[in-house]
Amino acid sequence: MIRQGSGEPLVLLHGITFTERAWRDVVPYLTEHHEVIVPTALGHNGGPPPGRTPVTMVDVIADAERTLDELGLERAHLAGNSMGGWTALELARRGRALSVCDFSPAGMWESGGEDMNRVYGILRDSIRDVRRSRRLLPLLTRSRRFRRYASRYTSADGAHVPAAELLAEADDLIACEVIPDPATPEALPPLDPLPCPVTIAWGSLDRLFPIDRYRLNTERLVPGARFVVLDGVGHVPMLDDPELVARTILAST
After folding, report:
1. 128 exposure class (CB count in 10 Å sphere: 0-12, 13-18, 19+)
2. What are the catalytic residues?
3. Consecutive sets of 10 residues in the chain, 253 residues long: mean pLDDT of each?
4. Please, what are the domains in the chain?
């Protein structure tokens, strides 16, 4: 767990298959203003082991709330990406958030619907492909073209992602014990009224959750949230522009 800085607590929550390292380059921009805390989620590489499988979002959210309890935080500012964004909204529903700033939050789909199945299919295919090719990745990641292809669902242009970072992401993905199971479909229930100020930020180049497919449903599920579009970044904007991500968070706290 990363814990740095001083001020009101700000907890950063990563997306599925990632770890606390996803926020590493954002943290330095925040520590002057907040005590920044970055845990690794249940069932992810370096995080708490799951007590059962399949792991559901109910389990992930409950573990995140236990983390707040263990840290002695009744409430904190929360920022989340993808799965972490879904977690942040549910923690807000439980009264644990001073504010929420989400980046392309997951769960903005119909339970068992086409969008949910599409995303889970991409994730399962990615896990399969990485497991099959892991021993070749040190060679393959030397290629900018390969890094761009491998990061197409997370980064606007993965060519700039260092090979070492891509290898670490691959190992995190392989070690992740949270595998989506269509037999337990979940979606975010409407959050109305908002329990705290909420900002929803979406990358204009998000290929995993394209903004034109998700914006209307997001605005329906989280009515009253401030919705902003971040130009030139993908689904995991911390990879593309950590300073922009930090500015977006600070504007919401």
Report:
1. exposed
2. 82, 206, 235
3. 96 96 97 97 94 87 97 97 97 98 94 84 90 93 94 93 92 85 73 96 97 94 97 97 98 94
4. 2-113+178-250 (3.40.50.1820)
